[in-house]
Amino acid sequence: xxxxxxxxxxxxxxxSEAPCKTMLSAHKANREYFREAYRRGTHGWAVDIPSPYAxxxxxxxxxxxxxxxxxxxxxxxxxxxxxxxxxxFRVTAVDYEPLALERARRFAKARGIQGIAFREAxxxxxxxxxxxxxxxxxxxxxxxxxKSAWRxxxxxxxxxxxxxxxxxxxxxSPRFRLFRGSGRHWHIAYxxxxxxxxxxxxxxxFGRDFETIALKEERGxxxxxxxxLMKRR
Length: 233
Description:
The protein is α/β, with parallel strands linked by helices.
């Protein structure tokens, strides 16, 4: 597998958040980036081991909503939905990249994990009934969306989350090495858009609709993530 650094060659645009004129829209560019990453199977993120922060939140929720319906948004190759299934959640996992879902299904079979419903879907058009899920989990989807799309993202997830349902979010913080010392909160590499969040960003975006139960910052060799557990008001 390629190291993370191998995937992070920077394409510099103007000093605003907008990427270079020659680049595709952030949404389309992200899709092409992930399609190529999953086609190659060599990228810079973990495949087998879920985040201990996300797992800790899942363990906590498995006691509050045992057997609850959980949606993994942008599931990738499945490491977090596998952890949720092992904890007894009824898991639906979505990704907009078919190759990611193909790999996730293959990995689930190899691990003997059954019962996960994998579906191709876009976070902005989630194909589920209103108030369908007890828990939503987003590890690394929101931080690939431009700030102008944050409200649409929130509206989409609120539609499918039950009142008083729970939301697990993991996003880049400014301490992540791509942003550290750069003086900006966005980054483009290989055409893919990334955005880091301050704790204030999270509060401003979600504070009206969610109560924050836990907010933890992960700091490591690669830099920082925010891991947040929220409950819908």
